[in-house]
């Protein structure tokens, strides 16, 4: 590794602006790092070296011409392979989209380019973002830089591993039930789920439209805030986009870095206060609560009784929406087409295409969702799940009437070995036990490294009210300053 690959995004942006390094030098350093370690980590599905170097040279030329550029101009970023990138393969981790090159950029990708950021490539993920370990990618699993025999979380394990392994200083993920925060927790990185509607979904290959939320992955809270400021904001191309400015997340992160949380009331969710967590995770959480108290925060226990029903409600709502969204993959319009020999019917071709193109977990969720939406079962399953969602929202509203933010462990356990949970889907789903309620509510949440258990990272989750993303950044930055950085062993 070089100093350019271990530097924060903020440091790289300043070095490029000051002429101490060029964007091309920074980009080449990260491409060299990818070439050196990614065969072992498999964070990337596609590395766009030529495109990245061209973008870096363009930034250097603009700066040489005296153009005023943003703080992340010339800084490399990796993009989860669920966001459309014009002319660059976008597969959503699925064989059914193998080789597809979108004719347009997702809004978030366009904003990265407008900010002068350098897109290194597309990162690995569980197929269509359905999974908690990146073991369900059709292109093979990503490995955790802390221990190559363990999972990097999911569905956005590739983005988190790229950041943790110093292959990229920043990455974009998407969070439907914890797919940014959970990988952040188990790789010792910062993962942020913004307020739903605070970042655009236009150009995102949809899993569950009422839950999907793109957001930043980084090694520091300030870096995450800087990236959040670039990608956030209203998008008229997204009907669910909130017509409001991005909350002052960068200012909040810088304020929190002082380590002063005086006057901040933090709620410990009684239902998530370490119950059901591994002993090491529970111990780190208790220590973290003590640290936050020393920083001046007032700790209040709050009860959110309907959080206990979040997991089953999510696994009715999300599969129902996925069964609808994935109906477009029929072998007719784009992507994989199997069995078209001129003799088979359209229905047979569709069936063969979906059989060959979708993996086992995607099929499981499509079937579950189709059943929940079927005649005679809609009210009993999907309708009831939506009622539970309303009750969970009320729990959040009541809690935020008493406290500024809520805290909990991000995950019940540290990174587990490959294959440890694939035979039991329910055990895999438990990885998102603490993260799912926020998705059902729609508010923002962040995972920040809080310590180690058996030498592996543990994350703290900070949850805030909708459009109060700045609150979670302040708390997370204060904890980060108290804990210090967590660095994985050298690859």
Automatic annotation (TrEMBL):
The protein's matches in Gene3D superfamilies, at most eight in alphabetical order, are given as: Amidase signature (AS) domain
Question: EC number(s) per UniProt?
Answer: 6.3.5.7
Read off the NCBIfam families from this record. gatA
**What InterPro entries does this protein map onto?**
Amidase, Amidase_CS, Amidase_dom, AS_sf, GatA
| Pfam families according to UniProt | Amidase
Q: Which reaction does it catalyse?
A: L-glutamyl-tRNA(Gln) + L-glutamine + ATP + H2O = L-glutaminyl-tRNA(Gln) + L-glutamate + ADP + phosphate + H(+)
Species per Swiss-Prot/TrEMBL record: Pilimelia terevasa
Q: What is this protein called?
A: Glutamyl-tRNA(Gln) amidotransferase subunit A
Amidase domain ranges (all copies): 25-471
Q: Name one GO cellular component term.
A: glutamyl-tRNA(Gln) amidotransferase complex
């Amino acid at each position: 590794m070089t100093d350019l690959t271990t530097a924060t995004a903020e440091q790289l942006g300043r070095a490029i602006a000051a002429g101490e390094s060029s964007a091309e030098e920074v980009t080449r350093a990260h491409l060299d790092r990818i070439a050196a370690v990614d065969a072992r980590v498999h964070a990337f599905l596609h590395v766009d070296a030529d495109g990245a170097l061209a973008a870096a040279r363009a930034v250097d030329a603009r700066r040489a011409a005296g153009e005023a550029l943003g703080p992340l101009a010339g800084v490399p970023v990796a993009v989860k392979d669920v966001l459309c990138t014009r002319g660059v393969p976008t597969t959503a981790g699925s064989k059914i989209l193998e080789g597809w090159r979108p004719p347009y950029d997702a809004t978030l990708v366009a904003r990265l380019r407008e900010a002068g950021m350098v897109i290194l490539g597309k990162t690995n993920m569980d197929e269509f973002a359905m999974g908690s370990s990146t073991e369900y990618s059709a292109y093979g699993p990503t490995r955790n830089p802390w221990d190559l025999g363990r999972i990097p979380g999911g569905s956005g394990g590739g983005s988190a591993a790229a950041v943790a392994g110093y292959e990229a200083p920043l990455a974009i993920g998407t969070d439907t039930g914890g797919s940014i925060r959970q990988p952040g927790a188990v790789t010792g990185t910062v993962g942020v789920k913004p307020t739903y509607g605070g970042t655009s979904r236009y150009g995102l290959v949809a899993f569950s439209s009422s839950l999907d939320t793109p957001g930043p992955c980084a090694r520091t809270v300030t870096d995450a805030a800087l990236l959040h400021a670039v990608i956030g904001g209203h998008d008229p191309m997204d009907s669910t986009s909130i017509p409001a400015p991005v909350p002052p997340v960068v200012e909040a992160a810088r304020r929190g870095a002082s380590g002063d949380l005086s006057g901040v009331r933090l709620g410990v969710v009684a239902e998530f206060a370490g119950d059901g967590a591994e002993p090491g995770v529970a111990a780190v959480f208790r220590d973290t609560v003590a640290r936050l108290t020393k920083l001046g925060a007032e700790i209040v226990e709050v009860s959110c009784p309907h959080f206990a029903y979040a997991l089953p409600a999510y696994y009715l709502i999300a599969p129902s929406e996925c069964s609808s969204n994935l109906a477009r993959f029929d072998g007719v319009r784009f992507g994989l087409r199997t069995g078209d020999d001129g003799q088979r019917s359209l229905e047979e071709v569709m069936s063969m295409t979906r059989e060959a193109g979708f993996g086992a977990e995607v099929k499981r969720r499509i079937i579950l969702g189709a059943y929940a939406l079927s005649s005679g079962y809609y009210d009993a399953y999907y309708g009831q799940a939506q009622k539970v969602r309303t009750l969970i929202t009320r729990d959040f509203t009541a809690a935020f009437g008493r406290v500024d933010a809520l805290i909990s462990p991000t995950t019940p356990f540290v990174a587990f070995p490959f294959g440890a949970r694939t035979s039991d889907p329910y055990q895999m789903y438990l990885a998102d036990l603490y993260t799912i309620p926020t998705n059902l509510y729609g508010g923002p949440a962040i995972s920040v490294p809080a310590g180690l258990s058996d030498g592996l990272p543990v994350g703290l989750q900070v949850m805030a009210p909708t459009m109060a993303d700045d609150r979670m950044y302040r708390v997370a930055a204060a904890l980060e300053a108290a804990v210090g950085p967590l660095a994985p062993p050298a690859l």
